[in-house]
Design brief:
Blueprint: H1 2-9, H2 23-34, E1 40-47, E2 58-61, H3 67-76, H4 80-87, E3 91-93, H5 103-111, E4 116-124, E5 127-135, H6 148-197, H7 201-215, H8 219-229, H9 235-251
Antiparallel strand pairs: 1-2, 1-5, 3-4, 4-5
């Protein structure tokens, strides 16, 4: 038991060394090694939010022949994995030659020579993990539903949840860092638009966002280009967008109050200072 815990603690934790759910393959391999009577193991992980929406399930197998056994369960919506996830209890098939509960899974398993299986479910908040061990012989997996396999599944599920939370935090930090680094140049570009079009900050930011969408460029990239070129080459386009924005605003109830000074244009359509 201590050996299992030590091996799991040795799973790589570095973000670059192991991608999200990278420990899933390790979990399947460890589960197979914990059960000498089994011929292989599979591990799955799925995340769902409060609305029941989530990412597609991730799967790891110790042998390619086991992949169809997992795939047919997700496709048909029935089998030991869906049953275990729904009930929260282990789902065992002692002899698939006689067990007719899951026809699709049963057919795939027998084609692969699998006669028995045990699926263990583990849940941590929105993270659901299953661990399934398979046997070539019927009734040889009674011990898989408890003991070392359960401990391994508990440890792995906790680790996978921690890894995902860690990566979520890193992603949020990266986004905040990007926002902090790009905000000054966006503000600078917004100030240039305010000066050129003689408009308020909210209007300038709206125009920048619309121009970003029209040109299919990131707002930060667009702002950097505007600052670098001092806005040359986009004056007319900004003026047209401002005119359309003004028409939309004028059509709204209460328009004409508190929207800043009107944009003055030269005969060629460009705004005048």
């Amino acid at each position: 038991m201590n050996v299992l815990m030590a091996e799991y603690r040795d799973f790589p934790r570095d973000r670059e060394a192991r991608p999200p759910d990278g420990g899933l393959a390790d979990l399947a391999e460890q589960a197979a090694s914990c059960n000498p009577a089994c011929c292989g193991a599979t591990a799955t992980v799925i995340t769902q939010d409060a609305a029941g929406q989530g990412e597609p399930p991730s799967t790891a197998v110790t042998h390619p022949d086991l992949s169809p056994l997992v795939a047919v369960q997700w496709e048909a919506g029935e089998g030991p994995i869906p049953s275990a996830l729904e009930s929260g209890r282990p789902a065992a098939a002692e002899d698939l030659l006689r067990d007719e509960r899951w026809p699709g899974y049963r057919a795939k398993a027998l084609d692969a020579g699998v006669r028995s299986s045990v699926t263990l479910p583990f849940r941590r908040h929105a993270l659901a993990v299953t661990l399934t061990v398979y046997g070539f012989r019927p009734g040889f997996l009674q011990d898989a539903g408890h003991g070392a396999t359960v401990l391994l599944g508990d440890l792995a599920t906790t680790g996978l949840l921690r890894d995902r939370q860690y990566l979520d935090v890193l992603t949020e930090v990266d986004q905040l860092d990007t926002a902090l680094r790009t905000r000054p140049v966006v503000d600078q570009a917004c100030g240039m638009v305010m000066y050129v079009l003689q408009c308020e900050a909210d209007t300038a930011m709206t125009l920048l966002r619309r121009l970003s969408q029209r040109t299919n460029r990131k707002l930060s990239d667009l702002a950097e280009a505007l600052v670098r070129t001092r806005g040359r080459g986009v004056e007319a386009q900004l003026a047209r967008l401002a005119e359309r924005l003004g028409e939309t605003t004028a059509a709204a109830p209460g328009a004409g109050r508190g929207h800043g000074p009107a944009i003055r244009r030269t005969p060629d359509g460009c705004p005048s200072s």
